[in-house]
Design a protein that fits this description.
Helices cover 55% and strands 7% of the residues. It has 134 residues and is mainly alpha-helical. Strands 1-2 form a two-stranded antiparallel ribbon. The longest helix is centred in the N-terminal third of the chain and has 21 residues. The chain starts with a helix and ends in a 7-residue tail after the last helix.
Length: 134
């Protein structure tokens, strides 16, 4: 191949690349849309609306706290699930005074029914001796 043919090929390639750069729009790097700060504040307020805190008084158990908060002692399991780190292994023991327990403010009817069923299951396991603390 002659140097003239090589020059023509290189020129054609350069021309093709130049046309591609000039006529095709540059790709825009799409950034993830930023969430407004207001949405985060609203989310925090929602969490505050869902959960509340209760400070224990002397000689209370989870059942007595549930009776005060929900009106039924069977709902103690809801409080226990949110506070396993504070209650430790045995949820039936009397709680020390001044523990700050987190609880769900409003339980739906279905949640209450599920908690009552779970409570009855716990009672059956205890009465048959099948409950062993971890």
């Amino acid at each position: 191949m002659s140097s003239l043919a090589i020059g023509l090929i290189i020129g054609a390639v350069i021309l093709a690349v130049t046309e591609m750069v000039m006529f095709y729009p540059k790709r825009q790097v799409s950034e993830k849309p930023k969430k407004p700060a207001v949405a985060r504040v609203e989310k925090r307020e929602t969490v505050r609306e869902i959960y509340g805190y209760y400070v224990t008084e002397g000689n209370e158990t989870l059942e007595t706290v549930a009776k005060k908060l929900y009106g039924c002692r069977e709902c103690w399991l809801s409080i226990y699930e949110l506070n396993k780190d504070k209650v430790k292994k045995n949820p039936w023991k009397t709680l020390p005074e001044g523990i700050r327990l987190r609880y769900k403010k409003d339980l739906t009817h279905q949640e209450r029914e599920n908690l009552k069923r779970e409570y009855m299951s716990w009672l059956r396991r205890i009465s048959t001796g099948k409950y062993l603390p971890e």
